[in-house]
Amino acid sequence: EEADEQQEVPLPETSSSNPSPSKRSEKDAMTLLEMVRRPQAIAVMLTVLLLGAGGWYYVNNQLEPFTADSLRYG
After folding, report:
1. Under a CB-based contact definition with an 8 Å cutoff, are residues 35 and 41 in contact?
2. Distance (Å, rounded) from C-alpha 35 to C-alpha 48?
3. Cα separation of 52 and 73, whole Å?
């Protein structure tokens, strides 16, 4: 008898499936210079620069000078 007392769950309201138009039009598209000036882009470039410089420094200090043994004849 409890089945008769159960209430139906209301279905959610359907929304339009049309995607909202993008806020930027093509004439307002971001140029490369504007993308590079963003703080996130500057932070990424500085991080890559520091990691690259640190790696180059580390690799250069690991190299030991190679000197061949002097040849001894006879």
Report:
1. yes
2. 17
3. 46
Running along the chain, 74 residues long, what does each successive block of 10 average in pLDDT? 68 71 65 91 96 95 75 72
- Name the token pair of 41: 């882009």
Residue type, 54: G
Q: What spatial distance separates the first Cα and last Cα of the chain, rounded to whole Å?
A: 112
Q: Are 22 and 28 in contact (CB under 8 A)?
A: no
Q: For the chain, how many residues are written?
A: 74
Whether the model pTM is above 0.70: no
Q: What's the CA gap between 41 and 49, in Å, rounded?
A: 12
